[in-house]
Write a structure and sequence with these properties.
Structural class of chain A: mainly beta
Radius of gyration of chain B: 13 Å
Number of strands of chain A: 12
Structural class of chain B: mainly beta
Shape of chain A: globular
Oligomer: heterodimer
Strand content of chain A: over 45%
Helix content of chain B: under 10%
Amino acid sequence: AQKVTQAQTEISVVEKEDVTLDCVYETRDTTYYLFWYKQPPSGELVFLIRRNSFDEQNEISGRYSWNFQKSTSSFNFTITASQVVDSAVYFCALSDFGNEKLTFGTGTRLTIIP
Amino acid sequence: EAQVTQNPRYLITVTGKKLTVTCSQNMNHEYMSWYRQDPGLGLRQIYYSMNVEVTDKGDVPEGYKVSRKEKRNFPLILESPSPNQTSLYFCASSLSLRVQPDTQYFGPGTRLTVL
């Protein structure tokens, strides 16, 4: 069974600080996919990234970076030099290779204090 | 413009009165899915579809039905709604969860209240 844990329910940081959102997953499959999504206060859902389990290279996109560590079953998300626009709920999700079912974590509410 | 549309955006209904929430995408995507969002529970997948006439259960399918007769449409049907189905519902589409481009597009959400 798939499971995603986002232990941090809420995080607040002051603008320009770096912040890391944790994601720990469980799966029996050796091949799987991991995702991050953003839900700003306006409520829409925005896809951020997908990673394959066979590619452990970390990814950087501007101020966003993702650290995938198979050994600890984690897929953490770091925002560098945070901005107020980064305030949102962030969800991590997992899909096993055997199907296209998607399991989400419960989300982390990030507040950037100006 | 690439988009996923959902209707209605808001709906208040009563227990047992059948309802359908429509979802339509204009990107020729094969993969479509429905999610519900509840406080403290995050997002949970209800059903997904990998192509026309192919649907499968997500984590919380009880009380819901779907159909995929055409590629662009993926309606969510509540045959006999109950108060525990009060929630915010999102539809999404993508080519697949597996291939590039892997971007998923979400509808704006439907807020459903069952009295």
